[in-house]
Design a protein that fits this description.
- The protein is α/β, with parallel strands linked by helices and about 220 residues long.
- It has a single domain, classed as CoaB-like (Rossmann fold).
- It has five helices and 14 strands.
- The strands form four sheets. It has an eight-stranded mixed sheet, sandwiched between helices.
- α1 crosses α5.
- The radius of gyration is 18 Å and the shape is globular.
- About 35% of the residues are buried.
- The protein binds cytidine-5'-monophosphate.
- The site of cytidine-5'-monophosphate has 14 residues, from α3 and β9.
- Its cofactor is FMN; Mg(2+).
- Pathway: Cofactor biosynthesis; coenzyme A biosynthesis; CoA from (R)-pantothenate: step 3/5; Cofactor biosynthesis; coenzyme A biosynthesis; CoA from (R)-pantothenate: step 2/5.
- GO terms for molecular function: FMN binding; metal ion binding; phosphopantothenate--cysteine ligase activity; phosphopantothenoylcysteine decarboxylase activity.
- Its EC number is 4.1.1.36, 6.3.2.5.
Length: about 220
């Protein structure tokens, strides 16, 4: 791997959704497939990096000698796994769609249906990316933002609040972008407010574009 742009770099990537248990058979989740995170991991490995891929529940897998997959279920498990590896990492990309809330109480028995409505109380999950921004030392930290309004302004706010080096904006207004599909359309924004918008591409090509942007900044 010598001579490649990411050789000797340790990369941590989060991918996929999280599942928050309600009872032994039910959970709260979202439609993330993990594709963007897996593509970022494969691209990084092909560029010479040692990759830790921390993934929520997904059907995807990848067999690359330089990718270690750590499979987790809940946001709390993803948080713990990230912090286990964070100190030794050079570059972090959080591409996971982490559940913002989890059920406050997890029923140990399957919840039985009764007449009338059911309420489930939710509490906040920790923001994994924010927590890594707080203890950042040398890491190049990258997040994603999925916005439906004031996209650039909101993404800039998120970049500052979470102490990021760059943020990747997917607009839900662009058809073919975001969850589920195999294509994505992104804007890459760095902490100097340098901004670059890309065409709609396959997630594999988007991953290459993202790595080009990151590599040009860590070697600058
Ligand atoms: O604040 P928002 O959820 O829009 O931020 C999205 C970014 O933060 C993504 O990079 C996502 O992976 C990360 N995130 C996280 N932990 C959370 C929520 C979001 O790491 N609990």
């Amino acid at each position: 791997a010598k001579g490649l742009p990411l050789s000797a770099k340790k990369v941590l990537i989060t991918a996929g959704p999280t599942h928050e248990a309600i009872d032994p058979v039910r959970f709260l989740g979202n439609r993330s497939t993990g594709t963007m995170g897996f593509e970022l991991a494969m691209a990084a490995a092909n560029l010479g990096a040692q990759v830790i891929l921390i993934s929520g529940p997904t059907h995807l897998s990848t067999k690359h000698d330089s990718i270690e997959i750590i499979r987790v279920v809940s946001a709390k498990e993803m948080y713990d796994a990230c912090h286990e590896f964070y100190d030794g990492t050079d570059i972090v990309i959080c591409a996971a769609a982490v559940a913002d809330y989890k059920p406050k109480h997890v029923s140990s028995e399957k919840i039985k249906k009764k007449d009338g409505d059911l309420q489930i109380e939710l509490e906040r999950n920790p923001d994994i990316l924010f927590s890594m921004g707080e203890k950042k030392t040398h890491q190049f930290l990258v997040g994603f933002a999925l916005e439906t309004e004031n996209e650039i302004e909101n993404a800039k706010g998120k970049l500052r609040r979470k102490n990021l080096d760059a943020i990747i904006l997917n607009s839900l207004k662009d058809s073919g972008a975001g969850f589920g599909g195999n294509t994505n359309k992104i804007t890459f924004l760095d902490k100097n407010m340098d901004l670059k918008t890309f065409e709609l591409k396959t997630k594999s090509d988007v991953a290459s574009d993202i790595w080009k942007e990151i590599i040009s900044r860590i070697h600058a």
